[in-house]
Amino acid sequence: MATAIGPSGNRLLAQVLDIVGVPVLAPQLTRVKLKAGQVLHEAGVTISYVYFPVDALISLLQVMASGETTETAIVGNDSMIGSELMMGVDRTTSRAVVQCEGTAYRLPIDIFGHELDRSPDVQRVVLASARALMVQTAQTVACNRHHALSQQLCRWLLLSVDRLPGGELHVTHEGLAHTLGVRRESVTLAASRLRDEGVIQYSRGLVRILDRHRLERDACECYRIVSTECARLHEAAAKAIGRPSVLHRTEGGTRLSEISAHRRPDARNDALRAPKDRRRGERRTPVDRRVRSVPIAFADRRSSFDRRAGYPQLVARPEAESPPRELAG
Fold it and tell me: In 3D, which of 145, 167, 123 has the Cα closest to residue 1?
């Protein structure tokens, strides 16, 4: 199967190259061949490189103390391995394992971090990719808890095919069992049903999608939620390229003048209406949340000074004694 093996084969890397410039970043990229089962990084270990898969599929796995694993997200030609760098960390709690062999481009983490620091547009597209992975992770957790294995398998096949240039997957029943966190026999039974119904073709570790419409119909809503939200995030990030960033990095931190420039024109009116809104019991606007010097009244307490202790204490005012009740008769 002929596939594009250039850097543009990964959508996120293509965006970064357009922003930074091919002559600047392309010489730093290294094309690598990833083999099935290869571990790119372990959980808790410092990440040395970021990877941009082109025609490979990589699983992010959570590893239990017993050695059992469960997949939380899959990364293909839409994203990267190492997006945690955008969050200010250089390690992760998951293990990155190659699920389907193929080609990827590798970049040292210090070079990629430098481009993140100097370009708000690179920050924007990488942050959208990291957010898409979070959406996929959260929906995968819900899917594993509430949906049947047959639905989980359909979801996984669809998400995997969407992240590969072709319509076929190289995966074994054993690999699927580790990915979904179930027994191999259960995966074999679910895959056999799809093959008997003409939805997929499976032979010697090669899976081909024959009826995608039927596969989408049999999948749970998790696939539609993940695919729709990921598409929305990437589209929004692409449209925002070139616009001024509100949270622009500077040596002194966030530039407050840019935040003020991006406030709505009626922000001042919101601040003036805030006291009236609070009297009506409405919620305060974000503009009105500021530090003020407000006198605090203590209704049932008085302040005294303990000379021996040398610091002020709050002493509760004793309650007035109620007159004793008279016994009747």
Answer: 167
For 212, counting Cβ atoms within 10 Å of its Cβ (0-12 exposed, 13-18 middle, 19+ buried), the class is middle
User: Could you count the other beta carbons within 10 Å of the beta carbon of residue 5?
Assistant: 16
pTM (two decimals): 0.72
Nearest partner of 20 among 120, 154, 143, judged by Cα: 120
DSSP assignment string, 19-65: HH-HHHHGGG-EEEEEPTT-EEE-TTSPP-EEEEESS-EEEEEEE-T
Q: How does pLDDT run along the chain (329 residues), one tens digit per residue?
A: 444 578 999 999 999 999 999 899 999 999 999 999 999 999 989 899 999 999 999 999 998 888 888 899 999 999 999 988 878 788 888 999 999 999 999 999 999 999 998 899 999 999 999 999 999 999 999 999 999 999 999 999 999 999 998 878 988 888 888 888 889 999 999 999 999 999 999 888 899 999 999 999 999 999 999 999 999 999 999 888 887 764 444 343 333 334 334 334 444 444 444 444 444 444 444 444 443 433 333 333 334 434 444 444 444 455 555 555 555 54
Distances (CA, A) of 8 to 12, 104, 229, 283: 8, 11, 23, 48
Q: Which two tokens stand for residue 196?
A: 């008997």
Question: What tokens does 32 get?
Answer: 């690598």
> Which 3 state secondary structure label does DSSP give 102?
strand
Taking residue 277's Cβ as centre, other Cβ atoms within 10 Å add up to 14
Q: Is 152 helix (H, G, I), strand (E, B) or coil?
A: helix
Per DSSP, the residues of 267-298 read HHHHHHHHHHHHHTTPPPPGGG----------
Q: Which amino acid, 4? A: A
Question: What one-character DSSP code corresponds to residue 12?
Answer: H
Query: In the structure encoding, which two tokens stand for residue 111, read together?
Result: 């070079």
